[in-house]
Write a structure and sequence with these properties.
The protein has 281 residues and is an alpha/beta fold. Helix content is 40%, strand content 14%. It has an eight-stranded parallel barrel with strand order 1-2-3-4-5-6-7-8, surrounded by eight helices. Helix 5 links the parallel strand 3 and strand 4. Bound molecules: 6-sulfanyluridine-5'-phosphate. 6-sulfanyluridine-5'-phosphate binds next to strand 8 and helix 9. Belongs to the Nth/MutY family.
């Protein structure tokens, strides 16, 4: 039977990866499948958005390289908020180089991603060596990896046979470091097991989620939490501008942050209701 009918809690045991287990436990404990994508360029705004949405999310997603005044105090504060509000951190780094290079990009440089991000993601364009390179750094730290099997943007070149190869590569990763996908549907269940492969459960995290807009004029395409969670069987909704959009407009900042909090509550409710309907609880 499809994992879509199973509860998050009942799937914890089917994962070896500690980050995947913690995410499922967190979703169940907090009753939220919402990940907020905090794509703002100032440290203070980033932290304030995270403060505003912390109680409503299972995970916060960052693009740490867009922060203009980045310093390691930011990642320390993010980690403290993650403990305080009980959410995980996903650095959306989209690694896309050979194994040796991504090991360095993941562990080192200014951002030291592996030291604070529970989950990160990668394109499989370079081949499975990218998984080996990232696992070398992340596996000892209990981190997890998502492969971008499908994308939300118009005209993207992932999906199709490429997406299927991502599923095969994830199944063939015997370390368990690869624990899921960025995808638009339950892609793991659409790809037949190859001889010798065992069935494995994976997380599906899905961006391109909005309740008020269909697109952004730059290729992004939005679906509703109900379409993503109930109809497509995905596990986590990733929402960016639908939640922090008020911050992009001129006007009273404290009012904007109140709106951010309200939108987070709204998306959290929509995502969780879709999950309850899907699992018929
Ligand atoms: O296919 C994808 C994969 C990702 S990770 N489409 C996406 O939009 N994303 C990311 O999700 C993107 O980089 C951005 O951070 C977020 C969507 O933001 P929104 O403002 O459109 O909700």
């Amino acid at each position: 039977s499809s994992v879509a009918s199973k509860t998050y809690a009942s799937r914890v045991a089917s994962f070896a990866n500690p980050a995947a287990k913690l995410l499922l436990e967190t979703m169940e404990r907090k009753k939220t499948n919402l990940c907020v994508s905090v794509d703002v360029t100032k440290k203070a705004d980033l932290l304030q958005v995270v403060e505003s949405v912390g109680a409503d999310v299972c995970m916060v997603k960052t693009h740490i390289d867009i922060v203009e005044d980045f310093d390691l105090d930011l990642t320390e504060k993010l980690s403290a908020l993650s403990t305080q509000h009980d959410f995980m951190i996903f650095e959306d780094r989209k690694f896309a180089d050979i194994g040796n290079t991504v090991s360095l990009q993941y562990s080192s440089g200014v951002h030291k991603i592996a030291s604070w991000s529970h989950i990160t993601n990668a394109h499989l364009v370079p081949g499975p060596g990218i998984i080996t390179g990232l696992a070398e750094v992340g596996q000892p730290l209990g981190r997890g990896l998502l492969l971008l099997a499908e994308m939300s943007s118009k005209g993207n070149l992932a999906g199709g046979e490429y997406g299927q190869k991502c599923v095969q590569a994830a199944r063939n990763d015997t370390t368990g470091f690869t624990c899921g996908f960025i995808a638009m549907d339950r892609i793991d269940e659409k790809v037949a097991l190859q001889p010798g492969q065992e069935h494995k459960d994976f997380l599906v995290l899905t961006p391109g989620v909005g309740l008020d807009a269909k697109g952004d004029g730059k290729g992004q395409q939005y679906r509703t939490p109900d379409e993503v969670i109930r109809q497509s069987g995905c596990d986590v909704i990733i929402v960016g501008r639908g939640i922090y959009g008020a911050l992009l407009k001129d006007g009273d900042k404290s009012e904007a942050f109140r709106n951010v909090q309200e939108q987070a509550a709204r998306y959290r409710k929509a995502g969780w209701e879709a999950y309850l309907q899907r699992t018929q609880q």
